[in-house]
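Figure 6 in text form: structure in, sequence out.
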């Protein structure tokens, strides 16, 4: 019933906000997700889980996972794309999750080809390859692909500069 759903939401919020009892908040949010599928409360619960994992118990991998769940459930909606973008932001800034960030960028490109988000995702993959993973050969290839696909984009000039900088080294 709607009353039961509201009760779960209140309980989760109480555990999370009032009591800082994150294990029980996580458990209650997961129950909401399992019981109510695509109800708006599921989106709220997943985003709440992400915030707990990212900023309260500092489990970046679980925060990313929460966003990826949003992306899967809301695959055809803007919320799904937004979740991928947020997951990529966490993954590209957290140590040792750069390969995951690249995978998320690939999903962004597949979900919204030629959008500004996809363009930034492609450039981000080249940047990660160059600066985080240290593979200049692959980075040059990605930058070159970027320039070929988006020659008029402002980041194309930056890609050319980076290729030139790698060539000088």
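Output sequence:
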């Amino acid at each position: 019933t709607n009353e039961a759903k509201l009760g779960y939401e209140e309980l989760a919020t109480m555990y999370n906000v009032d009591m800082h009892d994150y294990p029980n908040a996580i458990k209650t949010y997961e129950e909401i997700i399992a019981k109510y599928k695509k109800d708006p409360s599921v989106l709220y619960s997943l985003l709440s889980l992400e915030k707990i994992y990212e900023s309260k118990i500092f489990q970046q991998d679980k925060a990313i996972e929460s966003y990826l769940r949003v992306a899967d459930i809301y695959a055809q909606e803007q919320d799904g794309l937004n979740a991928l973008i947020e997951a990529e932001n966490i993954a590209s800034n957290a140590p040792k999750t750069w390969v995951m960030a690249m995978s998320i960028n690939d999903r962004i490109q597949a979900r919204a080809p030629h959008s500004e988000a996809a363009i930034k995702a492609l450039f981000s993959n080249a940047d990660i390859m160059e600066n985080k993973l240290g593979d200049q050969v692959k980075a040059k290839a990605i930058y070159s692909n970027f320039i070929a696909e988006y020659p008029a984009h402002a980041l194309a000039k930056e890609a050319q500069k980076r290729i030139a900088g790698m060539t000088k080294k």
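Caption detail: The mean pLDDT is 93.
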